[in-house]
Amino acid sequence: MTLFCDKTAITITLFDEEMIPILDVGEWKNYCLAIGDDETRLQLCKKCDAKYAEKARKINDVVIYSCHAGIAEAVAPLQIDNIPVGYIMVGKFRDTDQRLSSPEKIKAKAAEYNLDEKYMLKCWEELPLADPKEVQDAILLLKLITNEIINDKLIRAAKTTWTDHVTEYIQLHIGENITVEDLCAATNLKRHELYAHFEQYFSLSPRAYINQLRLAKAKELLTTTELSIKQIGIMLGFKKVDVFTKFFKEKMGIGVTPLQYRKQKRLQPD
């Protein structure tokens, strides 16, 4: 976005669903500073933004328009799975064919808002000149990029939240016989959804992931505590030492018994 602004001098603003600005990229233009130097005109700016953002949302497309102050802007909705999450607006430019923004419009706005005509025309001429079709193509590209960023962040956030939750649940019940039904109830997922989540986030089945956590806890207790092998096995849900030993040595592929593992670790230098 910064590169786009640097190359075109057109500003970009991201809004949330309530049309509250959450990111501004690019410098404010003198024209807009003059218009915004009055609370009444500033409120007109906000109403104009909201009006065309709503229009863009309804048609789910880019809307290029002449704002209340007589300059060109464009807005497009941002959506995830057809759910509105905000808007992207590019603007403060002069259109090449002057259908949206022209000297005549600026003169009329200067008179309407009691502003110095020569100064406002000078500020208008400082605005970047752009073809509306190129702006439309650019905002569609920016929209695509922004949607990808938002999706990636939401997916990452969802993944972190879900994986943390299910891992915490397993760790809290590590000494119990945790079933798929238990995990479904804890995560509010159906059986096929649960397996899909484990495959997506861990690349393991629920049982394999539980075993991985049991193994990690076993290694920790063997190396950091004086608990007996039997006590550790019971803490991890194994009622018999031989079953715990087989799990540790063979099933999880460690190749040594829990006791041998403890001795090896203690012989290793810090």
Task: Describe, in plain words, how this protein is organized in 3D.
This protein is of the alpha+beta class and 270 residues long. Strands 1, 2, 3, 4, 5 and 6 form a six-stranded mixed β-sheet that branches. The model has no long low-confidence stretch (mean pLDDT 85).
List keywords for this structure.
Arc Repressor Mutant, subunit A, rod-shaped, Beta-Lactamase, 6 strands, 270 residues
Strand tally is 6
Tally of individual helices: 12
SSE series: HEEHHEEEHHEHHHHHHH
CATH topology of the largest domain: Beta-Lactamase
Give the structural class. Answer: alpha+beta
| CATH class annotation of the largest domain | Alpha Beta
Overall number of domains = 2
Q: What percent of the residues sit in helical stretches (DSSP H or I)? A: 55-70%
What is the CATH architecture assignment of the largest domain? 2-Layer Sandwich
What Rg is obtained from the alpha carbons, in whole angstroms? Answer: 31 Å
The first-to-last residue Cα distance is 49 Å
Averaging pLDDT over every residue, what do you get?
85
Regions with little confidence, pLDDT below 50 for 5+ residues: none
Strand content: 5-15%
Provide a brief overview of the structure:
The protein has 270 residues and is α+β, with helices and mostly antiparallel strands.
Topology readout:
Layout: H1 2-8, E1 11-16, E2 21-25, H2 30-35, H3 39-59, E3 63-66, E4 72-80, E5 83-95, H4 103-112, H5 117-126, E6 129-130, H6 132-172, H7 180-187, H8 191-202, H9 206-224, H10 229-235, H11 241-251, H12 258-267
Parallel strand pairs: 5-6
Antiparallel strand pairs: 1-2, 1-5, 3-4, 4-5
Helix pairs in contact: 4-5, 9-12
